[in-house]
From TrEMBL:
Pfam families: Abhydrolase_2. Residues 1-28 form the signal peptide. It comes from the Bacteria. InterPro entries: AB_hydrolase_fold, Plant_Biomass_Hydrol_Est, PLipase/COase/thioEstase. This is Putative LpqP (Hydrolase/esterase). The keyword Hydrolase applies. Residues 148-226 form the Phospholipase/carboxylesterase/thioesterase domain. One of its GO terms (molecular function) is hydrolase activity.
Amino acid sequence: MGDVSAVRRRRAATVWLLSLLFAALAAAGCGFPAGDPSAGGAAAGATPAAVAAAATPTHTTGPDAYERSGRTSQLHLVLPGPDTAGPYPLVVALHSLFHSAAETEGWGLSQLAQTAGFAMVSPDGIDGSWDAGSCCGDAASKDVDDVAYLHALIQHLETNYPIDPTRVLIVGLSNGGMMAYRYACEHPEDIAGIAVVAGSLEQPGCKPKTPLTVVSVHGGKDQHVPGAGTTWQRDLAAPITSTADSLAPFRAEDRCEPATSPGDVTATGPDGAPRLSETLSAGSPAVTPAQIRATLAGARPTGDPASADAAPITPVPVDAATNPTDAVRTESTCAASARVVEYFLPNVDHGWPASTGPAAFDTATVVWRILSGARANPVPNR
């Protein structure tokens, strides 16, 4: 992995890489209808890149696989500030159906990259879609090899930028989240973790071979990709896997306990911080159930002279009428170092949750706080 020169790192933090030269890809894709409310753009038609890609075989293995992948569409790359020392983490952001890399600008991750010190790349799916397995549409039926493409893209960036290969993360919305799940099923050793927003696991028989951290954020009012799942989604002509079943393979590989212990299921505020009880909050959004229990056991309310050494907890009154639950957070202790964290947002529809307003949830910050501590695990010899 080569170093990036000081001049290179001081160039514009946001770079549009246009007309990258490739050989070709196997197909155009499809998925949610144009009315998918994941973002506010209109549906894209078949692009010249998609048409050209459909005519030529895919070559996405071996040296220079990325250059020969056939992807000539735009690639949005955000680098951390010039003073950020490498190697730094990489976040691969995957847009929702019938949208493009530009959609990810509204998620808050590219702005966070500058302050938190990670790189972010947002590729375009062929014809605005990703082949996530059993879904969606032409992308699945034509076997667009998005797994190989993303694998080659990650390797390309690790070669040309000071990326920490143990801290590669994938964040996806809707169809992009489905793609994140599929990649985690097939190449868990490549990445430290994924975050899926309003998505589901559509890769049958998923059995990740090594632990990795997974974060799920799903709205209770989502009818496009319902968290409870459905045997048939008419718009997609495919079944939708429930959030619980989507997370099950990763909970199994991470050897996570059932969420039955105190603190495993908690109400949270818009910052994702668990409300430890109806009257107490730890004030930290980056706590595990074990830390919650330890904090409760050793803490005293702020100003309590009974234990000057104990960690303080500030009482926070919670009134369901004036301060309703913004999210329900579920996480149990796992034997592996990886984590599986689920956020259920009762008042949120399909799409990336708004950062302001009555149903606000700071998704980018919440996801980063969890994934920033994750590290990739090699596949064990079994």
